[in-house]
Here is the input.
Amino acid sequence: MIQEEIREGIYNIILDCEEPDGVDANRAVQLITQYLHSQGVVLKVEGKLPEIVFPMHIGSDSPIGHIAREWHKKTQEDMLEAGYVKTEPLIEVR
Here is the structure.
């Protein structure tokens, strides 16, 4: 959905800049999007950090589960402090 919004925004900008002799806006959007993708541009998206998943043999209320939960919480704090962000590719590969 976000990808389509970006494409639509770029498309509208190009239409606003269209010259009398014409611009192939669809082609321009495709080229701009491909260029941004080739440069490693990604979308920053909202999302939570991964949740902890306990193996079947370790209950979340067990002493080991408590230690794992504390370690996981510290790891998530470290990730956020280091600048962790969730991203998606600009172009979906199907």
Remarks:
- The chain has two domains: 1-40, 47-84.
- The chain has a mean pLDDT of 77.
- The first helix runs from residue 2 to 16.
